[in-house]
Amino acid sequence: MAERSTAAVDVADNSDESSLTAQADQSTADGVAKNRERDTDSDEVQESTRTDGAGTTSPPELHSGHKLARRYRLEECVTRLDGFSSWRAVDEKLRRAVGVHILPADHARARSVLAAARSSALLGDPRFVQVLDAVEENDVVYVVHEWLPDATELTTLLASGPLEPYDAYQMVSQVSSAMAAAHREGLAHLRLNPNAVLRASTGQWRIRGLAVNAALRGVSSDTPQRADTEAIGALLYAALTQRWPYESDAYGLSGLPKDIGLIAPDQVRAGVHRGLSELSMRALVNDGATASRHESPCTTPEELVKAIGEMPRIRPPEPAFTAPPEYQRTTYQQGTYGRQTPHPGVTQPVPTPPPPLQSRTGKALKWAVSALLIAALGLGSWQLADALMDQGGKNEDPGRTQTNDGDADDKPAAPLKDIPISSVREFAPSGSGIQEDEAHLAADGKVDTAWVTPQYRGYANFGNLPQRKQGSGLILDLGTVREVARIDIDMYRSGQTAEVLAADDDVTGPSSLSEFPQRLSELSSTGSTLRIELKKPLRTRYVLIHVTRLPEDGSADLYRGGIAEVSIKG
Questions:
Q1: How confident is the model at residue 48 (pLDDT cuts 50, 70, 90)?
Q2: 246 near 240, Cβ under 8 Å?
Q3: Higher pLDDT pick, 267 / 346
Q4: What number of helices (H) and strands (E) belong to the chain?
Q5: 265 touches 275 (CB < 8 A)
Q6: By C-alpha distance, which of 31, 42, 72, 60 is closest to 200?
Q7: Is 478 strand, coil or helix?
Q8: pLDDT at 390
């Protein structure tokens, strides 16, 4: 009887079978170069305690085209090591590309691999490459995981040079937060290296092989949090310097020169961000390494997340706009469109223009202008006389002023007061957030901090991704129902298409677009600021800043946006 994990995934099939299968095949073809799960044991220079339990078990005889569970068709073997193999495959039931690890059921590490895969699947954190199935069947144990053809390994990114400070900051921030969440659930990676860290086309960083890669290779550690924290420090060091922070070469990177020890990244390469250099040294605390400049070391991912939060935020570079080409007059603008080109050397006679306004049309135009002038003089005289007759009425009530809507009011309008924003959360109608941990930066009273979206490629509507069909934005919670009269929004960048909506005063915890029926501004392209003044205060507790399209981010194919600061008055 086959033992099958509850982590298996199944969804309704409502699409054309042949076309989707072709897309899955194409995805696997595209993903070979970027996502090959290579044997990296030869690259390892810092390895935790290893338990060698592979024994003499030989891997099962498999070949391209073989099917597991009549569903997973093996396409290409990308790793064969220690009695197990890893494959690129196609899930023919769901028409998608997947990755599969396979080892014999009597392999010494088969039980630990199954346990690690099921624990990883239960975590369900989208920052990790998801385990989709973990099965023991027909004397074979196999683990099925996501295959991301549009993602690029950190190893590949570093082949062309170090990362920009903002990209390195995003990488270490997202990887540290993800590993802190995993350790809170009792899961460690223990093989966190440049091959295991991927950047998706949306700019999001993802980690593959949580717990599973270590179980496949029999790697364990008495201090898993410290081991993963040092690995994150090594990733950041490599991202800043394009060097591996140990003496041996690894992952296509040159190691440090021998006999000089571990030196800070800003001493290896000029122009390295000093704060990030310091952060990498605080994480690299094993094997005699110490934190630089007398800062305390970070020994857990949680401490690393806290240290990142204390750093000044690194903002993305402003897009570089190229100057438009010099204006050149066309032949149409010069008045020669459709005319015959004069022969060279022949002087063309210049036609004499007619006297101005001497034609029949010109005379009619002169009479029309004269009539308008006479009418304007008559109207002005009548308004002047009417104003002189009403002059006395103003003195009878000198203290009365006129409001915008024409109603008289004896009292001046009360000054507006700031309404504190209780909390800010990301508008994610699909349930999948993008930068949820940065939402509070839009209401921290600082314009130089912001909630910023990842960089999307190809489409301004958040990469045309299905989970971003309704865009994104921020939901502001005022804590209780308040009378809102004015909203001031500093956008992270001009050119975003956005609108401001409000929920009814009896709604609690709204999350969908339909729960914000009250429109405070039209959906339109915004500048660097968005100011909304309501003629009549509106009672609400929740305000939604809804962003549907993003401006260009440095080139015509990249897009990024965000919200820097919001204040509400009432």
A1: very low
A2: no
A3: 267
A4: 11, 25
A5: no
A6: 31
A7: strand
A8: 55
